[in-house]
Amino acid sequence: MAIISIPSSTTMFPMPQQVSRQNREVVVAEEIGRARMLTINRPNHLNYLSGETALTLGHNFEKYENDANADFVIIKGAGRTFSAGGDLHMFYEGRNTRDSCLEGTYRMYWLCYHIHTYKKPHIALVHGMSVGGGASLMAPMKFSVVTEKAFSSTPEINIGFHPDCGFSYMLPRLPGRLGEYLGLTGEKLRGKEVVAAGLATHFVPSQKLFQLEKRLLSIKSGDEDTIRSVINEFSSNIHIDERSVLNKLSIINECFSKDSVEEIIESFEAEGSRKGNDWILAVLKSLKKASPTALKITLRSIREGRTQTISECLRREFRISMNIQRAITSGDFYEGIRAQIIDKDKSPKWNPSTLDKVHDDQLDLIFKPFEDHDLELQIPINEEEYRWRGKYENSSYSRLRGSVLV
């Protein structure tokens, strides 16, 4: 749910004709042979994910999974970016109305569950930004293709939020303590780094991406080996620059395995004082500017996610997200959006202002299960328990619409 400006060097690749005609649909759905193509279609708004976008994507993923004529699904973004994640203006505008964005949040989490447990092959074609909630649509795909112009991050700590939409499940499953590093620092991975880290499956040069898309659309079946073979034809080998953070894993593993955010920063500072570790200084500066509450929430969430299933992680993340939106211990989320997106002064006033003022009892309130179990995210604990019955329309929130709760 973060926003990062698109570099001026980003280039555009061809779009479907109906998208380039400024189609007003937030998602363009196409049925082409045995393939189904979903294009996030808000190119003038960085393909932000609104509640309507999540609803439309979820509806189509469900439809295609049950369609005997659909063998696989492709998802991409219109224009120069994949997706900048959640629409932060929407959250800020609703800050004074209790649970104004609850429905959109609920639908986004169900969409993530759909994607993680999908029964047919799905493919993400990622060019440009894939950030926060946008990255949550890329990383779980059976096949996720990135170009040299692609970059990915989970920078939610900079707006007083936490890496959500399944990232507390995905981040701790990256190599070593890379997940803690990415979650706590919000640092970007670019192009081949995204593949090398395990957040994408293939690297394809941007000039070949449209050709790959055309070839995929011509496939006559959803056989995974056939899809993989086609993507491999266009893929390039991965060679990581020696300056990449992925070549610093020994330092990252040592520092980001510590028990607390305070200990992580102290250890990282010690490493930064050593010769040849100048790269740490800029990361430390960013780390120290983040919301203290968000940092502690993020570390605890990632650590809990290390031993949990995707369903357990999504349930917990939904709970955290709703409690942050309700500002039960801190208004950092809205202050972060104000500073980064609304006023753009880049000077948020966090409350509490320092890590030592963020206490465990405050965190416990954010992580605490809802007293009414029916208000939890209703997704299966066991995948085969049920498939689609837990959607927003069937939730207690929908039934309580109009009451004091919502």
From TrEMBL:
The keyword Transferase does not apply. Pfam families: ECH_2. Pathway: Amino-acid degradation; L-valine degradation. Coiled coil: none annotated. Residues 36-367 form the Enoyl-CoA hydratase/isomerase domain. Keywords: Hydrolase. It is an enzyme of class 3 (hydrolase). It catalyses: 3-hydroxy-2-methylpropanoyl-CoA + H2O = 3-hydroxy-2-methylpropanoate + CoA + H(+). The keyword Hydrolase applies. InterPro entries: ClpP/crotonase-like_dom_sf, ECH_dom, HIBYL-CoA-H. It comes from the Eukaryota. Its EC number is 3.1.2.4. CDD domains: crotonase-like. Belongs to the enoyl-CoA hydratase/isomerase family. Hydrolyzes 3-hydroxyisobutyryl-CoA (HIBYL-CoA), a saline catabolite. Has high activity toward isobutyryl-CoA. Could be an isobutyryl-CoA dehydrogenase that functions in valine catabolism. This is 3-hydroxyisobutyryl-CoA hydrolase. It comes from Solanum pennellii.
